[in-house]
Amino acid sequence: MRFQSVLDTLPIYEAGKPIELVVREYGISPDKVIKLASNENPFGVSSKVKEKVARSLDKMPLYPDDTYRELKEALSQAYGVQPSNVIQGNGSDQIFDFATRSVLGPGDCVLQNGKTFSMYSIYSEQCGAKVVSTDSIEHDLNQLLDLYKRYRPKLIFICTPCNPIGDALKKNDVYSFLDKISNETLVVIDGAYMDFGRTRDRETDIPPAEVISKYPNVVYTGTFSKVHGLGGMRIGYGIASEEIIRAFYKLRPPFNVSQLSQLAAIEALKDTDFVDSYLRSNLDELPNYESFADSKGLPYFKSYTNFITIRLEDAKLSSRELFETLLREGIILRNLKSYGLNAIRITIGRSDQNRILLDRLKALL
Amino acid sequence: MRFQSVLDTLPIYEAGKPIELVVREYGISPDKVIKLASNENPFGVSSKVKEKVARSLDKMPLYPDDTYRELKEALSQAYGVQPSNVIQGNGSDQIFDFATRSVLGPGDCVLQNGKTFSMYSIYSEQCGAKVVSTDSIEHDLNQLLDLYKRYRPKLIFICTPCNPIGDALKKNDVYSFLDKISNETLVVIDGAYMDFGRTRDRETDIPPAEVISKYPNVVYTGTFSKVHGLGGMRIGYGIASEEIIRAFYKLRPPFNVSQLSQLAAIEALKDTDFVDSYLRSNLDELPNYESFADSKGLPYFKSYTNFITIRLEDAKLSSRELFETLLREGIILRNLKSYGLNAIRITIGRSDQNRILLDRLKALL
Q1: Domain for residue A339, yes or no?
Q2: Per the UniProt record, which residue ranges are transmembrane (chains A, B) (predicted)?
Q3: pLDDT tier, A14 (very low <50, low <70, confident <90, very high otherwise)
Q4: Residue B91 and residue B168 in one domain
Q5: Averaged confidence pLDDT in chain B
Q6: What is the pLDDT of residues B289-344, one digit of tens each?
Q7: Min CA distance, A128 vs chain B (Å)?
Q8: Among residues A270, A287, A311, which one ends one of the domains?
């Protein structure tokens, strides 16, 4: 069988290790596992969302309303845009897929930061496009602009705050950058961690309604996987001009978000107390990791997210050794080796989880 | 913004009308609506599945195990294949997407029956491929073979039993056809309705393990949306040679099936009593629609599915008129006008639903 030649060299995304793996490989009971690997919400999900889903199980057999009207209305109200500016995705991941497939053909160029979410390049390469990255670890808008002028990409990805590093760009810097980009270049601003960034520094906040009204070539993406605690439900969204949304809709498979996922998301948007309480806890707990790293002289990236990335070049253990040691104990972190970094990414957990992990890190590093 | 030119002419899938629409447009209370439009399971979902999901709500925040190991093991045991022969999809729809994107490039040819599931051509056209269809309504393998020889397609779709017509091919006829097809041509056998077909005529049953061992170029697709009553949960699968599955995996987005969906599916596979009882009811109820159509002299297609398609060329109402009249009363059927047929597709419901609908059809037609 001859498959499309782009498949020959496509990389495959490596996900954080699931709890199931630790259970089956190391025989650790699931309730003993501490998973701080995938930037999930350590407080779980709002009890109101759980109640809503529990009351809605009779909807499982029914295809969702394929207009997703109620979800789009809830999102448009939450972000001050029109429902026609919104498209729902099976995770914000699916919005990246729509973005790449709507503008990229073989040989086209995509621009991104050196270290960033790896699905951007995977989706781009599926279209036969060539991905150009800065050589910086944190976002470098000057270098991004130089590369833009040189390569004239059809698509630019900006992840702010950035996964897997944790840095955030200031809104005004992003706007100055966007001012210099042609309206014919699609720009994805991935705001998966925007709520965390905003609570640490308001200047990093990029409101979707504002950015799409100033820049008709921007699509802002968001997710319910982080502050709303719905990572397992696969639901995200894109906010953009009607022109972009219409194009993405042509690539959207029918019923792309499950019935229970959309109900959970609508309910999650209402429970702002749950979100605020998590954001406060995250901001309270983050300094404990910073103090730890400082005490050991380990460099780390200032984080505007719910994780912290600590570099281990000068540590007693490499990121692989630390990852594997803790994995055997039932603590799952994310080794950033596949991103070319000798660094470990730690999701900020609940205080009880952080205490256990910090004790182990103090002993091991 | 310049989008990829294939987007200019792409059709958009038209889904069956959701209950929500009838509620908001006609003010009918949701529990009074009879939806027999989308071939969902009229008995809902197994109570064991509901209990399993209700017990698993704490998993909503966690990304699924991206290996989907438990789900693939359950499917491989159910169908007598290896886990490496299985890929899960966000509905079997996503498997069609993997199939088209793995083999099709601009200008390539895809072959399908004249009337068939409309997403095949939508996904194919997204790849810039040209879709050639037979001029038959029911599957015509002789014509399909003639077109195969003339156009040498890279991909063939066979939907058996076929949506939206209801006809089924006999296994031996399919195998004789496949014997004449090059191993370099990918063939999708969409078995979404296979369980219904098998209960009506065993000769229409195409076991996935058998077909993929005889034909390494075949991918068999199945869904949890029909007999298992999980249409809203978006979960389907492909079964094929390891070579095909590996290629599809390169196009699979991470976490493509939600946490609760995979748990529901695993549980649904266990409750064979629920499935068997639905299959018996479906076979008991189908003749009531056939007798009705016979009594009115309305032609219909012999159905091997959970729906019946009745032609209305000689009826008092066109399919549009009948559809709209019943919609206002809170009964949702599927008008096949968008398929170029003056015909109505009726999902076989529970006996109480069928009685109400048949009374109205007797009065109206």
Answers
A1: yes
A2: none
A3: confident
A4: yes
A5: 96
A6: 999 999 999 999 999 999 999 999 999 999 999 999 999 999 999 999 999 999 99
A7: 11
A8: A270
For residue A9, the chain B residue with the least C-alpha distance is B250
Q: How far is CA B276 from CA A290, B76, B198, B270, in A?
A: 59, 20, 12, 12
pLDDT in tens, B255-294: 999 999 999 999 999 999 999 999 999 999 999 999 999 9
Task: Give the A:B interface size as CB pairs under 8 Å.
Answer: 231
Q: Which CATH number belongs to the domain containing residue A89 in this structure? A: 3.40.640.10
Confidence (pLDDT) at B70: 96
Q: What pLDDT does residue A228 have?
A: 98
Q: Are residues A231 and A297 in the same domain?
A: no
Q: Are residues B86 and B19 part of one domain?
A: no
Q: Could you say which of B18, B38, B45 has the minimum Cβ distance to residue A60?
A: B45
**Closest C-alpha among A188, A235, A217 to residue A72:** A235
Q: How far apart are the first and last CA of chain B?
A: 50
Q: Do B4 and A101 touch (CB under 8 A)?
A: yes
Interface contact A233-B90, CB threshold 8 A: no
- Contact flag A69-B20 (C-beta cutoff 8 Å): yes
Give CA separation, A212 vs A71, A247, A348, B291, in Å.
20, 16, 31, 58
pTM of the model as a whole: 0.96
pLDDT in tens, B91-129: 999 999 999 999 999 999 999 999 999 999 999 999 999
Instruction: Flag whether B336 is in a domain.
Output: yes
Chain B residues within 8 A of A216 when measuring between CB atoms:
1
**A85 with A219, same domain?**
yes
For A80-113, write each residue's pLDDT tens digit. Answer: 999 999 999 999 999 999 999 999 999 999 999 9
Residues of chain B neighbouring A87 (CB-CB closer than 8 A): none
Cα–Cα dist A177/A172, whole Å: 9
Best mutation target among B25, B63, B225 (most A Cβ atoms within 10 Å) is B63
Contact between A238 and A89 under an 8 Å Cβ cutoff? The reply is: yes
User: How far is A298 from A154, CA to CA, in rounded Å?
Assistant: 39
Please state, in angstroms and rounded to a whole number, the distance separating the CA atoms of residues B365 and B362: 6
Whether residue B206 is contained in a domain is answered as yes
Which residues neighbour B149 within 8 Å (Cβ) at sequence distance 6 or greater?
none
Q: Are residues B179 and B319 in the same domain?
A: no
The residue among B238, B270, B302 that closes a domain is B270
Please indicate, yes or no, whether residues B81 and B225 belong to a single structural domain of this protein: yes
Same domain, B112 and B126: yes
Q: Tell me: do B32 and B159 sit in the same domain.
A: no
The answer to whether residue B130 sits within a structural domain is yes
Return the beta strands (E) in chain A as ranges.
34-35, 86-89, 109-112, 130-133, 155-159, 186-190, 218-223, 236-239, 307-311, 331-332, 334-335, 343-347
pLDDT at A259: 97
User: B230 contacts in A (CB within 8 Å)?
Assistant: 60-61
The answer to whether the CB atoms of B90 and A251 lie below 8 A apart is no
pLDDT tens for each residue of B217-254: 999 999 999 999 999 999 999 999 999 999 999 999 99
Q: Contacts of residue B259 in chain A, CB cutoff 8 Å?
A: 232-233
pLDDT of residue B78: 97
Q: Are strands A130-133 and A109-112 parallel, antiparallel or unpaired?
A: parallel
Range of the domain at B356: 5-45+273-364
Chain A residue at shortest CA distance from B96: A253
Q: How many domains does chain B have?
A: 2
